[in-house]
Specification:
Order of helices and strands: HEHEEHEHEEEEEHHHHHEEHEHEHH
Strand content: 15-25%
Structural class: alpha/beta
Shape: globular
Distance between the termini: 41 Å
Largest sheet: 7 strands, mixed
Helix content: 25-40%
Number of helices: 13
Strand order of the largest sheet: 3-2-1-4-5-8-9
Number of strands: 13
Radius of gyration: 22 Å
Length: about 350
């Protein structure tokens, strides 16, 4: 159902002993760590270099001897060669899980994305307009049958309705969009009425990492609507528009000294997920941009117990790096508005985004 579910299934494919050590990067989304914990394994960490690759010097000999697997992501959709990592894993007999959540197309150096790892995982919903979906694949190993439970008929039907509603909200049905909008307004009014009579004394969800990772459906098969859409949707527009949006961000931010693109896009076959931007004083800018619903996020929620390591850029990336979405349905006007708001905040620290928008 998701990239995180695919990581969980990849770990099961390895058939590791309980509490085996799995290495993950210090710069991470919590959904990269949660599957390791749920699989009954122990988590260890490695630092990252300026090019986004693992700093293998941060893994001491004892840790390397104990580790059974390592999760290595391609950050931002700007894939890198994993030749060095692959050789290190082979030398230490460590299984490599190549996390392609930010990558779906192109090459990672000498090989296509997803073919360096013993297993590769990916996220469909980050690239395609589907409600959910993860990928587990391997270029060199047989993927054993997964024991996934099938969604109920009600869940399948809801999936189709949700897709229709989302498409209607974005005006995708020329000629009948108004009629469909009326139907969904009526549906949602009934739903709100039921919600108003629900138990208001329900306990609040604990603000903890694991609940926020939404791991409830990791052993379920994805909805059929997600599989159907992924199989028929064209790729060309997705690829072209994401490259164009990345290049447009780069042009907007190039003149500013206070910011910098994290590393250049050097592979013309890459299909970016986000434009990563280093900001010297990011907190206020990030909060203002988010308050206006602009397409930016950062990985600032680090799993408890992540260590501080010498020569590791992970902690500074978590604080300073903003990720601007390159999604194919963001227009040139959307990208320009986001970039201008960011640049104006940088140039005028006391001016809120709300004032900029006016």
């Amino acid at each position: 159902t998701s990239g995180r579910a695919a990581i969980y299934q990849a770990l099961l494919q390895l058939r590791l002993e309980p509490e085996s050590l799995v290495l993950a990067p210090s710069y991470h989304c919590p959904t990269m760590i949660a599957p390791v914990i749920l699989a009954g394994l122990k988590i260890g960490y490695f630092g990252i270099r300026a090019d986004g690759l693992p700093n293998l010097n941060t893994v001491d000999a004892l840790t390397a001897s104990r580790a059974k697997a390592i999760i290595v992501p391609h950050y931002f959709g700007l894939a890198r060669s994993l030749l060095e990592v692959r050789q290190w894993c082979d030398e230490h007999r460590i299984a490599l899980i190549e996390d392609c959540a930010h990558c779906y197309f192109g090459n990672a150096g000498e090989r296509p994305v997803g073919t360096w790892g013993d297993f590769a995982t990916a996220s469909l919903s980050k690239f395609f307009p589907v409600p959910e979906g993860g990928v587990l694949a391997s270029a060199g190993n047989t993927v054993k049958a997964l024991s996934l439970s099938q969604p109920s008929f009600k869940a399948q039907l809801k999936g189709y309705v949700d897709v229709l509603e989302l498409a209607t909200r974005h005006g995708r049905f020329s000629g009948i969009n108004r009629a469909l909008s009326g139907f969904f307004r009526l549906k949602n009014s009934f739903a709100r009425g039921r919600a108003n009579h629900s138990d208001t004394n329900a306990p609040a969800v604990d603000d903890d990492m694991m609940p926020s990772c939404d791991m409830g459906r990791i052993v379920q098969a994805p909805l059929s609507i997600a599989l159907s859409l992924e199989s028929i949707l064209p790729r060309g527009r997705i690829i072209a528009r994401r490259r164009q949006n990345f290049a447009l961000y780069a042009r907007h931010f190039a003149p500013m000294r206070e910011v910098k693109g994290l590393f250049p896009w050097t592979d013309e076959s890459a299909v970016p997920y986000v434009f990563p931007l280093w900001v010297e004083e990011p907190d206020r800018i990030y909060q203002e941009l988010r308050s206006q619903g602009l397409p930016v996020f950062r990985w600032d929620r680090i799993w408890p117990g992540t260590p501080q390591m010498t020569d590791d850029l992970g902690p500074s990336w978590s604080h300073h790096v903003l990720q601007f979405l390159c999604h194919q349905d963001l227009s040139e006007a959307d990208i320009t508005a986001t970039a201008v708001a960011t640049l104006t905040l940088l140039a005028n620290p006391q001016v809120p985004v709300a004032a900029i928008a006016q």
